[in-house]
Amino acid sequence: MNIIKVVGLAVVLLLAAGVCGTAAAEQVDINEIGDVTTGEMVTISGTTNIAPGNRLAVTVTPIGFAPTNKSAPGGAAGTSAGTAVVQKGNATANTWAFEADTTGFEPGEYTVIVEWVEGDATASTKFTVSEAALAMPTATTAPPSTTRPATTTAPARSPTPTAAAPAMPLAVAMAACALAGYLRRR
C-alpha cells in the first residue's frame, strides 16, 4: 500500500508542476506612437500573449487631465476611449489595434492606457500631439525641401502566446486534492 501512496503523490506533484509551468502571466505591450498632429487619425497598436477574441479597453487622456464641470458643453476635449479585439498574430505574439481621432485634441502630452477587460494585464505609454502647421505662401517657385532624419525604434518584446484561463490551475489543484483524498482512504 505504501507504493500506491508514493505513486499517487508523485502523480499529484507532476500535475501541479505541469500546470504551474505552462500558465504564463498575461501581458500587453504598446508599440511606440511618436508625435502626432492635431486632427490626424492615430493607430495605437501592440502585441499580447492574450488569446485572440479577447477585448482590451483603450483610453487616451491628456496628461494633467482633471475633473471638469459636467454641465459645460462639449465634455472633455482631447479624450478617446474604446475597445480593441485581440487578433491572431504570428508564432510569438498576437496583435491588437485601436484608431483614435485627434480632432479636438489640444497640443500637449497624452497618456494611453490599455487594460485587458477580463484580467489584470495592463500597459501604458505617452505620446505628443502638436498643433497643425498653417500653410504660408512663399515668394519663390522652388518646392520646399522636406527631409526628416531617420528614426529607429527598439523592437517590441514578443511574449509567448497562451490560452490558459485563470481557472485552470484551480481546477487541477481541486482534482489533485480529490485524488489524494481517494488514495488516502485506500
Give a brief description:
This protein has 186 residues and is α+β, with helices and mostly antiparallel strands.
Would you spell out the secondary-structure blueprint of this structure?
Layout: H1 2-22, E1 28-30, E2 35-37, E3 41-48, E4 55-62, E5 80-85, E6 94-101, E7 108-116, E8 122-130, H2 168-185
Parallel strand pairs: 2-8
Antiparallel strand pairs: 1-3, 3-6, 4-5, 4-7, 7-8
Using only CA atoms, what is the Rg?
Answer: 26 Å
Q: Report mean pLDDT, rounded to a whole number.
A: 74
Strand content: 25-35%
Distance between the termini: 8 Å
Overall outline: rod-shaped
CATH fold name of the largest domain, please?
Immunoglobulin-like
Order of helices and strands: HEEEEEEEEH
Total discrete domains: 2
The total count of helices amounts to 2
Q: What's the helical proportion of residues?
A: 10-25%
**Total count of strands:** 8
Largest sheet: 5 strands, mixed
Query: What is the CATH first-level class name of the largest domain?
Result: Mainly Beta
Give the oligomeric state: single chain
Side by side, the strands of the main sheet go 2-8-7-4-5
Q: Name the CATH architecture of the largest domain.
A: Sandwich
CATH-assigned homologous superfamily of the largest domain: Immunoglobulins
